[in-house]
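RECORD TYPE: protein structure
NAME: MarR family transcriptional regulator
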Amino acid sequence: MPDIGKWSINRLLSTAARMLEHSWNAQLKDLGLTHAGVTALGVISQNGEISQVKVAQIVGVQAQTMGKTLARLESHGHIARIRSSADRRSYLLTITDAGEDALMHAQQVDETLSQLGQLANPQFHEMLIDVIHELSTHEGGKEIFHSAVEGNMVPSPEKVNTVEVDEEIDQSKPLTAVIEVLSPEDSREN
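PREDICTED:
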């Protein structure tokens, strides 16, 4: 076993995030979901009837990439496409009862995983929040933070490279953020 005590903090955080996501994806597989699918399903659930383009914008990916995720969700019966009443040529997405059920189970999986070992430690949680606050003041950090808050897990490199940090994050307010590490499957879709 390698001496991970000598690893950099970047390597430790990245490895832990990948391992957590791998475990999450393994449990989601039985629900017919992936991490990307849960993200899209959450957006559809929160917004009601919504276009594919709008889901892609909120999540921060190309419409074609989102199309693959949505096709998987539709094939598993998690979403349905309904004809738009405003434009009969286009379709809107809506979550099905099965999709709401799958989303609820995915949230339970997330909750269960968050209770493993030190992940359940409130001090660890607070330290991660502090790290996110601190990194949000560095170049690109603010954009990544705001993207995560808005549900956009993978901000475009153009935005990250051009962001100007012009405001502090209000640390007196509750903070929820998600850190996503792309798996090889995700990177092939982009």
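COMMENT: The chain has nine helices and two strands.
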